[in-house]
Amino acid sequence: MTGKYFFSETDIKSAWEQVLTAFWQRYPNPYSTHVLTEDVLYREVTSDNLLLSRRLFTKTNRLPRWAERVFPGNLSRSVYIIEDSVVDLGNRSLTTLTWNVNHAKLMRVVERCVFAGEQDRPLWTRLTREAWISSGVFGLSRPIQEFGLARFKSNQLKAMKGLEHALSNLQKASAACHGESAERNKNLNSASKTQKPQQYI
Asked: pTM for the full model?
């Protein structure tokens, strides 16, 4: 695929199982207000124990000022995104492939992410992200691709902050659950100590 290419690798300081849970709970979050809707279109567990999912997202599609002068004013300000994902519990990996359904001639963005658990570092997850940005607009493909790459970089930073937000919420919920459990056990132990022994005749 011609156009712009993006590649990055990120180490996430959380176990893969936590990252997987947070991935499904990313939206809504304060860093991704451009994500308007999220719908599951398809989900299946295969015979070899893979979880396949397809989701549809609606996101805002604000054009740069120079593009607003070039393209018609009735151009949709929303973009529809398809996300296919494969969860492989055996290999502790989550692979996603996303692409835009509409505005594909104006700009097509295809993104592939792999969240992989690391055997030698069980409390870390490696995220490998790739993206391909292309445009079919004659004479303007280069500036459109440059803009697309810049916007993608900005959005992927927001996506990471959104994932970190979801992970933080999970950790807070887990801590609160453990705290309630400890308090419950403490109260039970206290009650058992103060209770008088039952007498039998």
From this structure: 0.84
